[in-house]
UniProtKB/TrEMBL annotation:
Cellular component terms (Gene Ontology): cytosol
Protein name as annotated: Haloacid dehalogenase
Taxonomic placement: Bacteria, Bacillati, Bacillota, Bacilli, Bacillales
GO terms for MF: phosphoglycolate phosphatase activity
InterPro entries: HAD-like_hydrolase_sf, HAD-like_sf, HAD_sf, PGP-like_dom2
Biological process, per Gene Ontology: DNA repair
């Protein structure tokens, strides 16, 4: 738990399941996102849908964890919503193409740590605010699909918040106890409002000050996760 600006680390009983955010938690998002982001704006300009310079990378990186419609409201606030929908399509296409070409990296020790947890009987899930083809594409192209029991995305289930997405996942798979593992305030909220132990991830560098307030423990490296089990 974060109290008075200090992180108090503890260990916890092994849960039935762990539910992971994707971007900034398992996947080093910028390694795939930023080339696709620039290609997307090049195409929008070529199609006459956007004028001016590409917005700073910091705008989209700082928006990770939000629903796409909210991301574009921050990145391109003054364009027609139809341009936002075109941006959805283009960004997804460029990211999937990047994955097919081998672009994008998982954080260090993700595969080994997830395999270790699975071998200990922990059920593994993803809950992401991203689009379904992107979420499933990352996990599949990086060879991690066999480790996960379910991959849930806001894009697939049209949920308005990660709280709802996680609750749906838990109900569907009859999850009795779980840890919510993620790097954004939406992950903390989703965990706490569903009665879960929340593990904050503080290595992506995208979060705002205080964003992980309320997390029960904080990771500086993903491989620290397994050591939190009693």
């Amino acid at each position: 738990m974060i109290r008075g600006g200090k992180v108090l680390q503890a260990t916890f009983e092994k849960p039935d399941a762990m539910i992971f955010d994707l971007d900034g938690t398992l996947f080093q998002t910028e390694t795939l996102l930023l080339p696709a982001y620039h290609a997307m704006f090049d195409t929008l300009r070529a199609e006459g849908l956007y004028k001016g310079e590409t917005p700073p990378e910091s705008l989209i990186l700082g928006s990770l964890g939000m629903l796409l419609e909210h991301i574009w409201q921050r990145v391109m606030p003054d364009v027609d919503p139809a341009v936002h929908r075109r941006a959805d399509s283009l960004l997804l296409d460029y990211q999937l193409e990047g994955l097919r070409q081998g672009d994008g990296r998982m954080y260090d020790s993700v595969a080994d740590t997830l395999s270790r947890l699975r071998s200990q009987g922990v059920r593994l899930f993803v809950a992401s605010n991203g689009l379904e083809p992107y979420v499933k594409g990352v996990v599949e192209h990086k060879g991690l699909a066999p480790l996960f029991e379910g991959l849930y995305s806001a894009g697939e289930f049209q949920t308005r918040s990660k709280v709802d997405l996680v609750r749906m996942l838990m109900d569907t798979y009859d999850v009795r106890s779980a840890w919510m593992v993620g790097d954004r305030s939406s992950d903390v909220e989703a965990g706490l409002k569903n009665g879960l132990t929340v593990i904050g991830c503080d290595y992506a560098g995208f979060r705002k000050e205080g964003e992980l307030e309320g997390a029960h423990a904080i990771l500086s490296h993903f491989e620290e996760l397994a050591a939190l089990i009693k």
